[in-house]
Design goal:
The structure holds 2 protein chains of 2 kinds. Chain A contains no helices and 11 strands. Chain A is an all-beta fold. Chain A starts with a strand and ends with a strand. By secondary structure, chain B is mostly beta strands. The model of chain B has no long low-confidence stretch (mean pLDDT 93). The chains are: A mainly beta, B mainly beta. The interface between A and B is medium-sized, with 24 and 22 residues.
């Protein structure tokens, strides 16, 4: 079955440590996205990538970094510079281009807790 | 910039009741509109979509009509079930080159037997 996998589902870290969240898709989508979800705030875009080896900052990129070395993979690193990293992180992917609507498909999410 | 406004939750309904979740938007151009559903501890799933004015999206008994004159995309279902309990997100995707998606804050629906 095609889809998006995120691992792990739950992640615990000590303050001051960097942590990397995994996101893999086998949908052959060009675009991938990382969102952060906090209670009552909907989804906020962290980073997005429309093609391999290229990515752009979203609305809340400070304290995060990404890479896009393969079409299937878009890992997110939460650095120690992120002041409030505890949240639910969602990865998504979509097709691209101008000629049709490109709905996003989401992974199951990773809940990160930093203490 | 673009924005999406949803009604505050939680919305609590008895099984078989009629559901409406209001969604209004602000956008330039001609956005596409979506409803996503999120079950506890899971990611978002696309529920339905509409790409132009007067389009009606429908899926699993849910419907929403793209109303450009009122900039609205209200979600409706004629008879809710306990299994519909979830958080519902309204979203729009603009027609620009990147096609950024803007999400509402979500409306939690609780259906009681």
């Amino acid at each position: 079955d095609g889809g998006i996998t995120q691992s792990p589902k739950y992640l615990f870290r000590k303050e001051g440590q960097n942590v990397t969240l995994s996101c893999e898709q086998n949908l052959n989508h060009d675009a991938m996205y990382w969102y952060r979800q906090d209670p009552g705030q909907g989804l906020r875009l962290i980073y997005y990538s429309q093609i391999v080896n290229d990515f752009q900052k979203g609305d809340i990129a400070e304290g995060y970094s990404v890479s896009r070395e393969k079409k299937e993979s878009f890992p997110l690193t939460v650095t120690s510079a992120q002041k409030n990293p505890t949240a639910f992180y969602l990865c998504a992917s979509s097709t691209t281009g101008q000629t049709r609507v490109h709905e996003q498909y989401f992974g199951p999410g990773t809940r990160l807790t930093v203490t | 910039g673009n924005s999406v406004t949803q009604m505050e939750g939680p919305v609590t309904l008895s099984e078989e009741a009629f559901l409406t979740i209001n969604c209004t938007y602000t956008a330039t151009g001609y956005p596409s509109l979506f409803w996503y559903v999120q079950y506890p501890g899971e990611g978002l799933q696309l529920l339905l979509k509409a790409t132009k004015a007067d389009d009606k999206g429908s899926n699993k008994g849910f419907e929403a009509t793209y109303r450009k004159e009122t900039t609205s995309f209200h979600l409706e279902k004629g008879s809710v079930q306990v299994s519909d309990s979830a958080v519902y997100f309204c979203a729009l995707r603009d027609s620009g080159g990147y096609q950024k998606v803007t999400f509402g804050t979500g409306t939690k629906l609780q259906v009681i037997p």
